[in-house]
Amino acid sequence: MGMKIKSAAIIGLGAVGGFFAPAFAKVLGEENFCVIAQGERKERLEKGLTVNGEFCKFSIVTPKEAKPVDLVIMAVKESGFAQAVEEIRNLVGENTQILCVMNGVGHEEVLEKTFGKSHVMYSYMKITASKNGNTITYDPGCSFRFGEKKNTVLSERVRAVKDLMEECSLPYCIEEDMELGIWRKFMLNVGTNLPCALLGLPYGPCCKSEHAVKIQRALMREVVAIAQAKGIALDEQAAEAQLKMSKGFPAQSKPSTLQDLEHKRKTEIEMFAGEVVKMGESLGISTPFCWMIQEAIQTLEEKNAGVI
Question: N or C: which end of the chain has fewer CB within 10 A?
């Protein structure tokens, strides 16, 4: 009998973590599924939360109490990634698989250096979701993308996660080139998420304005230039396809960076535009649009924090 996922844990029960948690709890059972949290966050999550209209309570376990599981889903914010890497150590056993569904690029490389390649697969989410207090809402049309870096043939561990997704009735897709898929998502976040946040617009108006679309296209072109310098097959045709796709998002839905600014939370701007600027500097590629939008959103963060 091949590999089978019989237990799982999630670290980061926010808008994205809410996609997995209810189904995992039902299919694997409370004794085989937990959420990792500690301190005030643990106390808050133990009160339960509502996911797409369904009230849910999960087993909340501290990092010290955690025991090895077959599958770990990482869905924390970028600011919590380094800490989360340390907090999942007790969860990782001989055959544990780690899937990091965070935005951005490069997380898999960090996890591979920490836990070894045999424990890490590639993944990202196609999702429109929000979290307000203890209420999580996500678009049922979303999907979980996962696999090896390349998937011309499905490995045993990919098939095991696939079987779990089907048992849980969770929408998924195994892309042939997961690295390219992650970079496409990154390009979309930089190109569409950030202009929405800067302009204070949900997806619909931002994708309708020809001026906003020019900003999106300019940002995406900088990501394309970085990707190509790294040998990743991203091109302007892919950028145009992402622009076209974003026009199909629910018109009044708001990307994560805009939600963060509206709730006066720290954004992930360093992981988006900041990372493009950093990679551009190391590669000798100019990224003026990403530089500008990073500085602008950081100014809005200062405004929210009462610094200015």
Answer: N
**Amino acid 1: pLDDT:** 61
All domains in the chain, ordered by first residue: 8-176 (3.40.50.720), 179-305 (1.10.1040.10)
- pTM for the model: 0.92
Q: Crossing angle for the helix pair 210-229 and 288-305, nearest 10 degrees?
A: 120
* String of DSSP letters for 26-89: HHH-GGGEEEE--HHHHHHHTT-EEETTEEE---EE-TTT---EEEEEE---GGGHHHHHHHTG
From residue 227, give the alpha-carbon distance in Å to each of 20, 223, 276. 30, 6, 10
What's the rounded mean pLDDT across residues 151-170?
Answer: 97
Q: At what angle do helices 236-246 and 178-188 cross, to 10 degrees?
A: 60
> Which residue carries 């992402």 as its tokens?
242
Whole-angstrom distance, CA of residue 89 vs CA of residue 87: 6
CB of 188 closer than 8 Å to CB of 242: yes
Measured from the Cβ of residue 160, the count of other Cβ atoms closer than 10 Å reads: 20
Average pLDDT for the chain: 96
- Amino acid identity, residue 26? K
Quote the distance between the C-alpha of residue 44 and its chain's center: 22
- The helix, strand and coil proportions of the chain, stated in percent and rounded to the nearest 5, come to 50, 20, 30
User: What number of CA atoms fall less than 13 Å from residue 236's CA on the CB side?
Assistant: 4
CA dist 139 and 130 (Å) reads 9
Q: How many CB atoms lie within 10 A of CB 250?
A: 12
Strand pairing category for 49-51 and 54-56: antiparallel
E-assigned strand segments in the chain: 8-11, 33-36, 49-51, 54-56, 60-61, 69-74, 92-100, 120-126, 129-132, 135-138, 143-147, 172-173
